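INFO  loader      accepted 1 record
INFO  loader      residues=439
INFO  predictor   begin
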Amino acid sequence: MKRPILRREFLKSAVAAAGGLSLAGCAASQRKPLTVTRGSPNEKLNIGIIGVNNRGKSNTEGVQSENIAALCDIDSWYLGEASQKFPKARTYQDWRKLLEQKDLDAVVISTADQVHALAAVMAMKLGKHVYCEKPLAHSVHEARVVRETYVACKGKIATQMGTQIHATDNYRRVVELVKGGAIGPVREVHVWCNRVGPGGDLPKGGHPVPEYLAWDLWLGPAPYRPYSPDYLPGNLTWNRYWDFGNGTLGDMGSHLIDLPFWALDLRQPTTVEAKGSPVSPVTNPRWLISTWEHPACGDRPAVRLTWYDADKRPESPPGIDLKAWGIGALFVGDDGKLLADYGKHILLPNKDYRGFKPPQVEIPSSAGHYVEWIQACKTGSPTLCNFDYSGMLIEHNLLGNVAYRVGRKLEWDAKNLKAIACPEADQYIRREYRKGWTL
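INFO  predictor   done
INFO  writer      dumping tokens
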């Protein structure tokens, strides 16, 4: 895509330096709580925005009630546009330099997936509150490191992953129905999304890098690839390649598997297996079915959770055509079934639930996904999609892609972050970074 440069001189001013990039230990574990964000709920946070367009623009709108003090984007055209709206904000093209800006209380990360974990970990180690677009990480190992970094700094920083659907009343009512025993003990769940994966190969190189684009910074820790307009802009462009994204499961699984993960208090699986279209070393699958086994926990029995995408679905319940549900989750209990998507839910079979009275509302309505995080930054109140919860969710989901890529069922040793007797899985559990980049 060819775009004009808003201001040609902007490219030079956008990369203002803000000190060195080295980190030693977790600053948040050694520092006192930020004075602006504890006991001062009426004061505004100084927020840095990493990624200002597409999802970044929406996320910025979600927090613009605060003071937008820094902006970062590898695209100087987008950066110039955002700077016109927030003229007092300092501007950067390298997010590592933005994070060194001393007066920042918090950051919002809306980059491509390969940068999420690196930026989030560095921000947390510097004692900054973090809101990060989903998925929280690009690999299983990254999800674990993000989670452990947050846990080490817990009580000093507020975190939230961008799964806005978690804040809806519909999800809350489904969670209450499952936890309240409306369909009895749940032993299996089916979750799906109708998005079709890409297939194909890497784009052809030979395109000149546009003047407004810091291509090497966009690549970040990913392997070097020649610039192609097929990668940018947008989400469903770069997301289709393993170098930068994790396909439908990595993306939409963050929203959809979130529901059973919450309702059933799922954590680490014991096994995971997957099948899909022929494996490509370059692009995500055109379709995928992945299954995780979760052990019994307390009064909850063992749970088998299965993910489907593209046109794949579980068997439809009587009287229901799941092909008509583009996204959804089907809870299968001993006494009935519960079918849900983002905005509605149905207890099945219908005849058994005539006159059914839902349980009393126990999970209060959310003030809003962004508001939850802002309030947490200022007062220490909880966020439901903090990096402990969301780190576990993303680690779980990305294991499905690992099983698909190695082509075998994995016995998962969660403590050691290893697939038992499957060394070929290591390269997908923990990815290598380009020289100069580290987690």
